[in-house]
Specification:
Blueprint: H1 2-5, H2 8-27, H3 41-70, H4 74-102, H5 111-145, H6 156-184
InterPro entries: DUF420
Keywords: Membrane, Transmembrane, Transmembrane helix
Protein name: DUF420 domain-containing protein
Length: about 180
């Protein structure tokens, strides 16, 4: 833990680079769908709804973590932020699995909605999602490697605010995209 504490920027950069590479490979469709076993049709059909549920729960844990730190409850804050990170990992794993196996979901709504609402929302969602990686990694690494008394002297609080904002925007816009793809049309 001591070694990691002194290399947070480097670890953040490495984790971010690996995450970006994974995202690009999956989104580009470069992962052969045959690489993974295909879940039964009923399971594949439920994945978007499960991902939306994970997103909603993650929003709750992030907001709970923010409330906890404002109340001075550091242990609860730490627990909720680690849970948020685990939910983030679960979300990415399941979503990337679905993307690798079946590909992206086509927008079935009106063309005018797709052009002026859906696509701009999707692009902004993707940009903020990419910004989320370094902010979350940095805040998490500083938070778990730095002794509690030394945290005020770090950039943890600032990075945490950025990470929480990016997370909330990403999960929130993801829920809107989910609704547009699976509930409205």
């Amino acid at each position: 833990m001591q070694q990691a504490r002194h290399h947070v920027p480097q670890l953040t950069g490495a984790l971010t680079a690996v995450s970006f590479a994974i995202v690009l490979v999956v989104i580009a469709g470069a992962v052969p769908s045959t690489l993974f076993p295909r879940a039964p049709t009923a399971v594949m059909a439920v994945i978007p709804h499960a991902i939306a549920t994970v997103s909603a729960v993650a929003i709750g844990t992030i907001l709970g973590g923010l409330r906890a730190i404002r109340a001075g409850n550091i242990d609860r804050h730490r627990t909720l932020m680690v849970v948020s990170f685990l939910l983030f990992g679960l979300f990415l794993t399941v979503d990337f699995y679905r993307l690798a196996v079946v590909g992206p979901t086509a927008f079935a709504g009106p063309a005018v909605v797709e052009t002026y609402l859906y696509l701009p929302l999707l692009v902004s969602h993707a940009v903020v999602a990419l910004l989320t990686f370094p902010a979350v990694y940095y805040a998490l690494l500083v938070g778990v490697t730095t002794p509690r008394g030394a945290l005020p002297a770090t950039g943890h609080a600032r990075a945490g605010r950025v990470a929480a904002a990016c997370w909330l925007l990403t999960f929130g816009s993801g829920l809107v995209i989910y609704a547009m793809l699976h509930l409205l049309w």
